[in-house]
Amino acid sequence: MSLSIPSFTHDFEPGGIHFGRGCIDHIDETLSEQGLNDALVVCGSTVGSNKALIDPVVAGLGRNAAGIFDETTPAKTLSTVFDGIERLRATEADAIVAVGGGSSIDVARGISALANANYTYEDAHAAVAETGELALPDDDDAYVPVTVVPTTLAGADLSVAAGLVAETDDGPTEAIPIDTRLMPTDLFYDPDLFETTPMDVLAGSAINGFDKGIEAVYSRFANPVTDATAVRGLAYLRSSLPRLRSADDPSVVSRAVMGTLLVQHGVSMPTSYKINIVHAFGHALRNQFGIQQGVAHGVIVPHALRLIFAEGGGRPDVLAEGLLTGEETTSDTEDAVVEAVETVRDGLGLPSRLRDVDGTSRDGLRAAAEHTAEDGFLDLGPEAFEPSVDDIERTLEDAW
Question: Residue 161, SS3?
């Protein structure tokens, strides 16, 4: 085994991280320290009507609460972004507090970037329809500061990307602007708030965060810093996620939240994005069958790992550091890692076979394999990983 350490650059600047039960009580102090006075809360209607969640956020903001925009949806459309901009201007807010999961956080990032960008909705829509891209302002001061209060375990928080969608003549067209200025200024991880999220939603989101830790390890851009946070985060998640649905111990949720925080730390960097192979499969399954991303990931990740391991990649020894206890360590590390992943998935109550997911069909697996092979995220995996469409289709057949 080589003990040499390769050269690397780790240029990751996360927002301020606040963790702990009750930490939301101090969000007003953080905003005031930045000279911010009025915050617009951005969330979905379910979060906005969840008084056990939204009331502590508004109470924590105190006089800094300017209003609530509770119209985000999983579609993450530009029209929602511009509706949010209109509300931001009406309240004269100088800050945004995004509460919830990835959809609300991405819309909040869109509002932040476009509120002062001299775009009309029509201009932004046309740009995406014509180029598939959305240019962001060059001026740092144009961005409205965003504070994030996550309430799911998907790990969409410490990111410099925003997945936004324009409705074009060719159907929904995704634009994913990536810019370090999209990183939240602060993030509040309060386990008390996560516990207000319905368990089916929390468990369904957890596999997405878990996969980020796995993919960070075998990304071609992995480095010792992201190895450290991913391995430690996976250990937290391995010990908590299988117990998430049944545990009365509050430390289980706290460990799940901390694990999700760690596995995404350093994953989202503009020139070395570390999400890769599982997400390529997930995109294809969502596009082909319309199934939810967390469900797709839960089914596919053990099979994707076997494909990666078969090609000599995946760094199973490093994954084992986070996923296996001393008692679970065996001579067949690859099988033990896959079994540990399956234990997490099964503990979360997610489907284990594609055939059990509504909307799927065996006849569509070839098309899903072709979509996976064309997905740009596939190229962010291990350097030597170059599966054929047939290889991918066999993996999907195994998952069927």
Answer: strand
Residue 8 in any domain: the answer is no
Q: Which residues contact 171 (CB under 8 A, 6 or more apart)?
A: none
- Expressed as residue numbers, the domain containing 186 is 16-194
Q: What are phi and psi of 293, to 5 degrees?
A: -60, -45
Residues 143 and 255 in one domain: no
Domain CATH number, residue 150: 3.40.50.1970
In DSSP terms, 175 is beta-bridged to 164
Domain shared by 93 and 157, yes or no: yes
Helix (H, G, I), strand (E, B) or coil at 29: helix
Question: Is 6 inside any structural domain?
Answer: no
Q: What does the pLDDT read at residue 131?
A: 84
Cα→Cα distances 302→54, 82, 257, Å? 36, 40, 23
- In this structure, the answer to whether residues 116 and 211 fall within a common structural domain is no
**pTM: predicted TM-score of the whole model, two decimal places:** 0.94
Give the pLDDT confidence of 204-216 residue by residue, as tens digits: 899 999 999 999 9
**DSSP notation for 304-338:** HHHHHHHTT-S-HHHHHHHH--TTT--S-HHHHHH
**Which amino acid is it at 190?**
D
Q: How far apart are CA 325 and CA 343, in angstroms?
A: 13
Which residues in 176-191 are b (16+ Cβ under 10 Å) and which e?
ebebebbbbbbbbbbb
Residue 9 counted as domain residue: no
Domain shared by 358 and 242, yes or no:
yes
Per-residue model confidence as pLDDT tens digits over 316-371:
999 999 999 866 656 699 999 999 999 999 999 999 999 999 999 999 999 999 99
